[in-house]
TrEMBL record:
Superkingdom of the source species: Eukaryota
Molecular function terms from GO: cysteine-type endopeptidase activity
InterPro entries on file: Caspase-like_dom_sf (IPR029030), Caspase-related_regulators (IPR052039), Ig-like_dom (IPR007110), Ig-like_dom_sf (IPR036179), Ig-like_fold (IPR013783), Ig_sub (IPR003599), Ig_sub2 (IPR003598), Pept_C14_caspase (IPR011600)
Pfam families linked to this entry: Ig_3, Peptidase_C14
Occurrences of domain Ig-like (ranges): 3-81, 105-185
Keywords: Disulfide bond, Immunoglobulin domain
KW Disulfide bond (keyword) present: yes
Protein known as: MALT1 protein
Domain Caspase family p20: 209-253
GO terms, biological process: proteolysis
PROSITE patterns: CASPASE_P20 (PS50208), IG_LIKE (PS50835)
Organism, as annotated: Herpetotheres cachinnans
């Protein structure tokens, strides 16, 4: 009898300011009349909500809590809805959201500019209100970051290539809203592999009469499209200069 009760509308998570009034909804169908009981969970304690025995649960937001609804029929079949989160923002400026707010995303926390050392964690954070609760998508330099879909963006070991301009889009069924764009600088770290550093140091101590050529081929530019063939160019120039009697060290990126 697992299909004796079918939930046709799950409740939806919301993200709202303290004092905001709204309604959690669930809908179900069964072979007999159905009974409802809402439960809330806060700090790992789950309790029935007194008097909450209807499909709709009116709430005036006070604090962040989780909710679910148990639905049962006259044959003692029972099923629970998904758990949903009612996230309550206590520190939203007065006047937000406006009275005509219909639940579209409103940014309440923007990420901040950061300077992070290579290898250290990079964490960015944002938050938005919305009914239903917004989903999130982070971008770097205008490019979508495939796995960064939460309020918090976390890169455990930052690389120089993680530098750039970040922003996040919060969206729900009513629309989307973008955070401020922030510049992230990843600094430090070893710029050259050990073998190339040793080669470079050796050249520094060569006699002043020696003919030395240092070739640097850059392919990855932060604010410029990648070049067509820097590796090939450096290779060809190295061969030509060596034929002319130069000692050549070639570096890439």
């Amino acid at each position: 009898f697992s299909t004796a009760i079918v939930i046709t509308e799950q409740p939806a998570s919301v993200s709202v300011p303290a004092g905001y009034a709204f309604t959690l909804r669930c809908r179900a169908e069964g072979r007999t009349s159905l009974q409802y009981q809402w439960f809330c969970q806060q700090q790992s304690v789950c309790c029935p909500v007194p008097g909450a025995t209807k499909q709709d649960l009116p709430i005036t937001a006070q604090q962040t809590q989780l909710y679910t609804c148990r639905i049962n029929d006259l044959y003692k079949n029972a099923i629970f809805t998904d758990w949903v989160k009612v996230e309550v923002h206590q520190c939203v400026a007065r006047g937000l959201p406006p009275r005509l707010w219909r639940g579209e995303p409103v940014i309440v926390l923007n990420p901040t500019e950061q300077r992070v050392e290579v290898g250290k964690p990079l964490q960015l954070q944002c938050a938005a209100m919305g009914v239903p609760a917004p989903s999130y998508q982070w971008y770097r330099n205008g490019n979508l970051l495939e796995h960064q879909k939460k309020k918090k963006l976390l890169i455990t070991h930052a690389k120089v290539s993680d530098s750039g301009t970040y922003l996040c889009c919060a969206s729900n069924s009513h629309g989307e809203h973008w955070t401020n764009a922030v510049d992230i600088h990843i600094e430090g770290g070893e710029t050259l592999p050990p073998a190339e550093r040793l080669q470079l140091c050796h050249l520094v101590f060569l006699s002043a009469t020696g003919k030395i050529a240092l070739l640097v081929g850059n392919n990855r530019y932060q604010h410029h499209p990648n070049l067509m063939a820097p590796v090939t160019d450096v290779f060809e120039l190295s061969r030509l200069l060596e034929q002319l009697g130069f000692q050549v060290v070639s570096l890439l990126d």
